[in-house]
Amino acid sequence: MAHDYLIIGAGPAGLQLAASLERDGADYVVLERGSVPGAFFERFPRHRTLISTNKVHTGYDDPELRLRMDWNSLLSDDPELLFTKYSPRYFPPADEMVRYLSDFAERTGVRVRYGTEVARISRDADGFTVTDQGGQSWRARRVVVATGVSLPNVPDIPGIGLAERYDSFDPDPETFTDQRVLIIGRGNSAFETADSLMENAAVIHVVGSGSLPLAWRTHYVGHLRAVNNNFLDSYQLKSQNALLDGRVLSIRRAADGFHVPVAFERADDVVKEIRYDRVIVATGFRLDTSIFDESCVPDLTVNDRFPDLTAVGESVNVPDLYFAGTLMQGRDFKKATTGFIHGFRYTVRALHRALRQRYEGEAWPVTELGADTERAVEEVVTRVNRSSALWQQFGVLGDLLLLAPDGTLRYAEEVPVGQVPHAVRAGDFGEVAAHAVITLEYGEDHDRVDPFDVTAGRKSQQDVAGLDGRYLHPVVRWYRGGEFVDAYHLAENLENEWDSEKFHRAPLRAFLEARRGPAAPVAP
Q: What's the rounded Cα separation, in Å, for the pair 494 and 500?
């Protein structure tokens, strides 16, 4: 059985790509080891509440604007295939995600073979061979891996095998009654677990290295979310729980439980041995590379947790091997939303467009604007005020304003920013004399200042040029001949409405007019 595309995994990313290929009438198949789409969500998160927000009531009628607040829906033309129709809860039950993905698969008609676990992927000059555990094989010209990070990321600590793992421990709080518990890890899975045990456990310590990053400060939704930080209250208010800034040196079983020496980083690595009844390791997940034979093992990044990819999602060392979904986050790890549905639904859409462009000769969609700068201003202002892709994938996806040698303008939406230089050089958008990349971004130092400190934010609120803006705001960067020329930051706005004639349109118009003429000096 040979196909143009073979997708491994029928989770959110696999379904998102498959639905697009199905709409194209493409030759593809999806292999899924589970019996249902999104089988991951039958087990995770272990405490069964999603932290991806589900804001049903936004006050917006525009479905594009509503997607800015909807972190769980996949992209579809079907108005019924929105997760907001499945639960009214802001943090919905994980079981509703399973139901939603099953309906998405059925209504889009995607072709999935369930109960098919991939055992081996190999590559030769004609493409890939994918073999399942039963020995059945498929041939494919391109393979897209959308399995998620399926293996626990277990730290190299002597005795770590004595610890229980987040992916397999019994989460029933009653089994922890009156016990002393150590949780290794500083992410949401660790704090989700700690919060769930607070009513039963006698003592809970959460340990990890470095300062604790908080999502409301860093704007990275994978850092500790407020919904999981009740534990911090119990620590700071001296309720027998503690956050340990240090490194676990080993885990040793003893007659009275487990003895764990911890090197405290804020105390010059002073080591203290602490006794616990239970130890749980919750240090995240990584890609399972065991399915790749020596002909197509992908290079890895971020401590070998994720595949090393191009901006569109292709392996840097294995041609025609692509990755979709949370596996695409290595390039912007802990900086953007690519690891989550509300981010990767857009990078998967960009991947689909890139596949169509590369293999089917279908040009990236562009809008002809003519030669009038005012039309370009209107297009930019409309997009930054409405686009959910630029909003969710800040700094990762950008729109392009393309200036042709004859002075006419064109507009391309949602191009991976890292792909732009190559695409322009390769002529993917035709002849381009100069171009602008339009993104939404936070300020450079946004994660190093207290966002609730009004004195720190005063300057950015007064600076109508937006140059000191720390909150999300539009950025327009101009390039000529592939070289960076200048950038303009549109001023921040409380309601995220960047359409003031005085503060947004007029300065943007002046910026574009000044750079459409003869080549400006290239910035150093």
A: 12
Q: Name the nearest CA neighbour of 148 among 287, 313, 308.
A: 287
Residue type, 296: C
Burial of 401 (0-12, 13-18, 19+ CB in 10 A): buried
User: What pLDDT is attached to residue 471?
Assistant: 87
C-alpha–C-alpha distance, residues 399 and 31, integer Å: 33
Lookup result for tokens 């790509």: 17
Integer Cα distance of 312 and 468 in angstroms: 31
Over residues 504-516, the pLDDT tens digits come to 999 999 999 999 8
* Alpha carbons 182 and 202: distance in angstroms, whole number: 11
Instruction: Return d(Cα 178, Cα 196) in angstroms, integer.
Output: 14
Residues 6+ apart with CB under 8 A from 522: 480, 483, 484, 485
Residue-wise DSSP of 50-88: --S-B----S---HHHHTTTBSSPPP-S-TT--GGGT--
Give dist(CA 10, CA 118) in Å, integer: 12
Q: For residue 97, with 0-12 CB atoms within 10 Å meaning exposed, 13-18 middle and 19 or more buried, which class applies?
A: buried
Segment holding 392, helix H or strand E = helix 388-392
**Which of 101, 85, 108, 117 is closest to 39 using CA atoms?**
101
DSSP secondary structure, 309-328, as one string: B-TTSBBSSSTTEEE-GGGG
pLDDT at 233: 93
Beta strands in 328-444 (DSSP E): 366-370, 397-403, 409-416, 434-441
pLDDT in tens, 387-396: 999 999 999 9
How far apart are the C-alpha atoms of 441 and 219, rounded to whole Å? 11
- pLDDT tens by residue, 301-326: 999 999 999 999 999 999 999 999 99
Each residue's pLDDT tens digit, 421-455: 999 999 999 999 999 999 999 987 777 777 777 66
Burial, 231: exposed, middle or buried (Cβ in 10 Å; 0-12, 13-18, 19+)? buried
pTM of the model: 0.94
Which H helix or E strand runs over 381? helix 373-386
Q: What is the largest CA-CA distance in the chain?
A: 82
The answer to whether the peptide bond before residue 63 is cis (omega within 30 degrees of 0) is no
Do the beta carbons of residue 129 and residue 139 sit within 8 Å?
A: yes
Q: Identify whether the C-beta of residue 399 lies closer than 8 Å to the C-beta of residue 433.
A: no
- Selection from 304, 293, 251, 320 nearest residue 137 by Cα: 293
Tell me: the pLDDT tens digits for 148-197? 998 999 999 999 999 999 999 999 999 999 999 999 999 999 999 999 99
